[in-house]
Amino acid sequence: NQNQGQCEKGWKSLGLKCYYFSIDKLNWTQSRDYCVEKGGHLVIITSQAEQNFVVSQIRKTHWIGLHDLETEGQWMWVNNQPLKGTGVTFWYSAPGRPDEPDNWKEEDNAGENCAALGHEIGDTDKWFDALCRNLKQFICEK
Predict the structure, then answer these.
(1) Using one digit for the tens of pLDDT, what is the confidence trace for 27-63?
(2) How far apart are CA 22 and CA 37, in angstroms?
(3) pTM over 0.85
(4) Where is each C-type lectin domain found (predicted)?
């Protein structure tokens, strides 16, 4: 990749942005804080090209920078931009099953308030909401 020089070691480039794909697993809040410490933020996916790139780099579920922690059902990126404002969404949906997000309350009444690419069982090309305390790998962007 000819842009590789602009990203520090361990980060991958797409366009003018650099991405870090973690090996360690953290909960969503820890992941968010880690990215900030590194001078970035959890990934904010704003295009099909960006979605395709991050999906191409992972084999397992990873946290992304999307949550509805403040108001249930109002999904926000970590830069405080509403999901509705970005124009692209890649939530999982399947015939005969409840669509993501906010489709699961049995395990935790608080609901699933943090978003990840992929699920424990695969499907890394779609977004799933999950319990924020779950430990997952994560993607930072800067």
Answers:
(1) 999 999 999 999 999 999 999 999 999 999 999 999 9
(2) 14
(3) yes
(4) 14-141
Nearest to 112 by CA among 97, 127, 90, 125: 127
- Given a contact cutoff of 8 angstroms between Cβ atoms, the answer to whether 48 and 11 are in contact is no
pLDDT (tens digit, 9 = 90+) per residue, 114-128? 999 998 776 788 999
Q: Which residues contact 71 (CB under 8 A, 6 or more apart)?
A: none
SS (H, E, C) 40-85: CEECCCCCHHHHHHHHHHCCCCEEEEEECCCCCCCCEECCCCEHHH
- Tokens describing residue 37: 């410490």
Residue 1 has pLDDT above 50, yes or no: no
Q: Are strands 62-67 and 137-141 parallel, antiparallel or unpaired?
A: parallel
Q: Which CATH architecture has domain 22-141?
A: Roll (3.10)
CB of 136 closer than 8 Å to CB of 25: yes
Name the amino acid, one letter, at 88.
V
**Average pLDDT over all residues of the chain:** 88
